[in-house]
Design a protein that fits this description.
Low-confidence stretches: 8-12
Number of strands: 5
CATH topology: Arc Repressor Mutant, subunit A
Number of domains: 1
Shape: elongated
Number of helices: 4
Strand content: 15-25%
Strand order of the largest sheet: 2-5-4
Mean pLDDT: 87
CATH architecture: Orthogonal Bundle
CATH class: Mainly Alpha
Largest sheet: 3 strands, antiparallel
CATH superfamily: Winged helix-like DNA-binding domain superfamily/Winged helix DNA-binding domain
Order of helices and strands: EHEHEHEEH
Radius of gyration: 18 Å
Length: 123
C-alpha cells in the first residue's frame, strides 16, 4: 500500500491492516476486487493506494480463513469479476480487529503525547 503524498515512498503498515480495511470495505455488501481497492482509496481521502498484487493475496488469505466468501458475477462495466462478501466469522473478526486497532492507536497517541524535555526522567 502506498501513500498519495509521495508515490515513490512505500509505507510499511502493521500486519493485518490491509485485512482490516478490506473487511470494513465489505460491511455494506458484496464488492469486486477493484471496488474494494477504490473504496479504501476513497474512504482514506486518497491516502491509501492499494497495490493489486497485495490486494488479491489478502483477499485469497481472507477467503481461506472463511472471513469472506467469493462468487462470480458481472461488474458495472459488464466484465466477469469475483465479488467478495463478509461471512459471519468475518464480521466477528472485523469487530475484534477494529477493537485491537483502536487500542493500538490509542497507545501510540499516549506515547506521542508524552512531553520530552528537561522534566522527563532519564532511565
Amino acid at each position: 500500500m502506498a501513500t498519495r503524498e509521495n508515490n515513490s515512498d512505500r509505507i510499511a503498515l502493521l500486519q493485518g491492516t490491509l485485512d482490516l480495511l478490506i473487511l470494513k470495505s465489505l460491511v455494506f455488501g458484496p464488492v469486486h476486487g477493484q471496488g474494494v481497492a477504490r473504496a479504501i482509496q476513497r474512504q482514506s481521502d486518497d491516502v491509501f493506494l492499494v497495490d493489486h498484487g497485495s490486494l488479491y493475496v489478502a483477499l485469497q488469505r481472507l477467503e481461506e480463513k472463511k472471513w469472506i466468501r467469493a462468487k462470480w458475477g458481472v461488474s458495472e462495466n459488464n466484465r466477469k469479476a469475483r465479488f467478495y462478501q463478509l461471512t459471519a466469522k468475518g464480521r466477528e473478526q472485523l469487530a475484534e480487529k477494529t477493537s485491537e486497532w483502536r487500542r493500538l492507536t490509542h497507545a501510540v497517541e499516549r506515547i506521542l503525547d508524552v512531553p520530552h524535555g528537561p522534566e522527563t526522567e532519564e532511565a
